[in-house]
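Take a look at the protein record below with the fold in mind.
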Amino acid sequence: VAGAAAFLLPGPTPMLLADQMNADFGWMILIGLCAAIPGMLLAGPIFGNFISRYVTLELPKDFDEPSLGQSKMPSFGFSLALVLLPLVLVGCKTIGARFVEQDSQLYNILEFIGHPFIAILVACLVAIYGLAIRRGMSKEKVMEVCSAAIQPAGIILLVTGAGGVFKQVLVDSGVGPALGNALIGAGMPIAVACFILAGAVRVIQGSATVACLTAVGLVLPVISELGYSGAQMAALSVCIAGGSIILSHVNDSGFWLYGKFTGATEGQTLKTWSLMETILGTTGAVVGMIFFAFL
């Protein structure tokens, strides 16, 4: 889940990065998949098998398998289709831009359904029908669930807005361009600089979204004049996304969310969640750097 949220469209953070960096959405999906899969394997089963020898987390006392309603769970195929649907729609837009004549009716249709907002809207409507209406849920209950799901969006908008303000302060004060120029002037590869900048902001203030926005504000004035392609900008976006999730600690809301849900102490959370996020982010960023070097 963390890998998908960090690297894969239509996740909010990678979508925000792709939009801000003017990255190619098709390449963003491809590189994001290539970053998320090895990151998931290393940070998930491999690291999990290792750390389980040193950290033991007890299941909640009221954990009851039948209460989860397994008999009413959607099938694996339908669940996978919901995840892939927006990716396929965005991919259709990329294919249309490559192989379909512009200004044609087919191109306009692909351009419309492949827009990230439309793709997410279609996936939401399919989810509402397949998970709720088709299973006999009343319209009132559907509205109640949707309303409850919308409420956390206010926090996301607030954090995103705060991140934009913080980014603009750094840019207008001259700190951003100076820091970006200093890193590049020191001979540091731009992909590595993107990862380090995002990681530094992440450690300082905690939010991955703010780290992404701030890192974009720091590097975009420098790289906008270099004429990178949409594919290269997608690779740099993955590097920024990787840096934005490393070294999660006490100033990150996800740190406390994980600890409260699992019953882990702060020390156990640092040994499990924080290391897992660092492995995932670093692995994804390395994949982004490799793509950037060859695109």
